[in-house]
Amino acid sequence: MKVIICGAGQVGYGIAERLAAERNDVSVIDVSPELIRNVRDTLDAKGFVGHGAHPDVLARAGAQDADMIVAVTLYDEVNMVACQVAHSLFNVPTKIARIRAQSYLLSQYQDLFAREQLPIDVIISPEREVAELVLRRIALPGATDVVRFAEGAIAMVAIECLDECPVISTPLAQLSELFPDLLSTVVAISREGRLFVPRSSDQLIAGDLAYVVTAKDHVRRTLGLFGHDKQEATRIVIAGGGNIGLYVAQTLEKRQSRTRVKIIESGRERAIAIADELRRTVVLHGSALDQKLLTEADIDDTDLMVALTNDDQVNVLSSIMAKRLGCRSNLTLINNPSFQDFTHTLGIEAQVNPRSVTISRVLQHVRRGRIRAVHSIGRGAAEIIEAEALETSPLVGTALRDLNLPSGIRIGAIYRNGAVLRPSGEFQIKAKDRVVMFALAEGVKSVEQMFRVSLEFF
Fold first, then answer.
1. What is the 3-state secondary structure (H, E, C) of 133-168?
2. C-alpha torsion angle, residues 118, 121, 125, 126 (rounded to 10)
3. DSSP E strand stretches across 125-246
4. What is the pLDDT of residues 38-69, one digit of tens each?
5. Quick one: which of 233, 47, 238, 26 has its CA closest to 130?
6. Distance (Å, rounded) from C-alpha 333 to C-alpha 429?
């Protein structure tokens, strides 16, 4: 697949890195010679210095032969015009744009991005998607990652196994026997930096991060089984009143009448503006690194500190300070990948990576076959994929135990006619079933082949 990426910042570089590693033909455009030099020096991708919306620059990048354009510059208007030019002049089939300004996304303006207006096929709003992820984490304390599939009927939950975890040292097959009515499957384990698909005889040990695919109604029971039966936070302090912080606070006001929220915002004008938009949330003006202000926010009586500023260092340090001042847990937004490896040792319990969210959305449209959703985990080491089975799929009509699935792939759940089904050895997948499965990076191409339309179908 030939892909043009406009914007070589953290998100654009991350997308290019992932697609180039999969041997796609990738071209990256940015106005910064330094960023383009970095792309050329470190990736198997072509780099072009220029404006991503200019026709001559897109032509040099090969837009006439491109299958997809991904516009993720810092400016919404550049992203929108790049997609328009790619459509009008080069007839690029798939156009993806990052749109950050929430006013473009209001429901009354939803026709703006129609094919006859601004022809954008996929809109990615990182702020809104990160905010929704934060809200899912708040609703499910104990989960370090939560993603929904199959219209929300299925969830993938990442759960840390602590020393007191009740299910450690128990073979996974025995867990299935002990809880036959629990619609949950451990599809992968991360252990000491290694991500792998477990066998039925494998056991969880303390320190493992288990990736579990489960029915929506069984998520809380699954968390309890792993020893994470925490109550949902009702006293929350948010550091950062930007688009993400404001969206989270507004949604909590609508959904959780018992939740008390306080926002710490460093910009005076912004603090006044969001205070006017919120009804029950207390807005405090100042730095989240000010210990006196944290004390004023009653941090010692707070269930959860959510750090959502635009500065990774402020997010990390304020989360650590809050924990040491008595806050029970924290959730931290971290953009820089180099920070993500050591934050856990500093007391960061859970983190959110906006780049991962955006890359996952793009991958959903890069993947061939009937792929409905993709969630990238472990910096591209693996993916959780939701795909629709076709009549010609080799998965259909054969007992799962008889399928010769490549190593590194495990089926977690099947969604059929509105019901969530748990896979077993004798289970047979039917056409139109939606299958949620885990695949290590080297197995993703095999998954694509399983869900592609065969030539014999025609």
1. HHHHHHHCCCEEEEEEECCCCEEEEEEECCCCCCCC
2. -140
3. 143-149, 154-160, 184-191, 194-196, 209-215, 235-239
4. 999 999 999 999 999 999 999 999 999 999 99
5. 238
6. 39
